[in-house]
């Protein structure tokens, strides 16, 4: 046993000396400092020969950790690509969230927002902006209040699902951003039905940070939530 230790020590000493005396020797890939079979400097950089194709081995750990650039079994670590989206806007149909002229969340609306909260907790993001909208029925003042109440109801539910309240801001746009123009003819029921796209809540998630291989899954999950459509700005 003592003879083996002496031989191994001698091999390591000779290998290190060869590296230090060879002016063409290059310091190459990092080694694993634990149980390494390669000669390395104090910064755990493996010594290589002048032609840059051989790594100096210590002889102490013939079955030690493999090192990229020295051992055929070693592989490079692949760095995961991260994507940051400028904005992901989720538009909730008011029918999914609220009854006509109401700001109390319906059960279907709660399910949709619970799904959104689950998605938000799976990523990091900078800010969430919740904006309520109404149709053209009612006065401007009334619609401003109704749209804000709707936005606040959405925020309160997201917070109840574990989303940080400080990351959510709310506002009400009333009827100032109509998607479709109101009908001037027809029954009241027909005119109410025609303005359904105007009755909505938008949730704008800013600065979503997500691994590149998860982007499609994130977007598709949001699109699968009943009563919503999604627009992504990269």
Automatic annotation (TrEMBL):
Matching Pfam families: OmpA
InterPro entries named among the record's database cross-references: Bact_OuterMem_StrucFunc (IPR050330), OMP_bac (IPR006664), OmpA-like (IPR006665), OmpA-like_sf (IPR036737)
Compartments reported by the entry: Cell outer membrane
Broad class of the protein's primary localization: membrane
Signal peptide annotation: 1-17
Matching PROSITE patterns: OMPA_2, PROKAR_LIPOPROTEIN
Keywords assigned: Cell outer membrane, Membrane, Signal
GO cellular component: cell outer membrane
Organism listed in the record: Hydromonas duriensis
Name of this chain's protein: OOP family OmpA-OmpF porin
UniProt domain OmpA-like: residue ranges: 85-209
